[in-house]
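Possible regression after last week's pipeline update?

I re-ran a chain I had predicted before the update to compare outputs. Posting the input and the new output here so someone can diff against the archived version. Not blocking, just want to make sure nothing changed silently.
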Amino acid sequence: MIEQIILGTIQGITEWLPISSEGILVLIKTNFFSKQGLEETIKQVLFLHFGTLLAAFVYFRKDVWSLIKTLFDYKSASLETKKIFKFLIIVTLISGLLGFALLKIFIGLESELLLSSKILTLIIGFLLIFTGILQLKATNKGNKDTHDLNNKDSILLGLMQGLAVLPGLSRSGLTVSALLLRKFNSKDALKLSFLMSLPIVLGGNIILNLKYFVFSIELLCGLVFSFIFGLLTINLLLHFAKKINFGYFVLIFGLLVIIGCL
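New output (post-update):
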């Protein structure tokens, strides 16, 4: 129970920051709590993401409701909503296919190479460094908004979100950085990044967890804490993330993770 409370709380806070909440949870789960295979660990981490998904639904409820209405009345939707809707469909298809393939490959490597927690920690450290470097290259100097979305943006963001299935690659860090590099303003970059997460997290839980899901009070507790802390911190941390480049933090954190394994 304590394990799920801690993991749920960490997920609720770190989801809104570009520091790879998945990587941090896998590190904590692998090194401090009960040992599981990588596949089971990632499935559990994905389930905790469902809590912050619900928090994002509440926070972005107006945008989500507009997109849901577009499903039933596409012709009457505004041009901006149509562009976001098309963007999310392409991004979700690409990131879903790429993410599923990468996850299977990564899990297969674990089985073949018998990855120890130390080696897995090293891999996450190097992926964190990559995330940090990308964030440092992205600058908030663009003025494009959601009206400027095109197919190139959709394909690029689908690839970035798909890569983020690997623990250590921050989904929000990669997607926000990619949008900034494409000259989108920081406000719309953050909004699009989190709207992108909603269908992929929901779909990932349905595909990976629904078939073999076993309900328990412990898992429910983790989900509830993830939702509560996600809802309590989303507004503050999204504003915090707009003003601070977390690239240096992620870079230093990745180096410390690697040094700790040596």
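Follow-up from reviewer: compared with the archived run. The chain has one domain: 2-261. Marking as no regression found.
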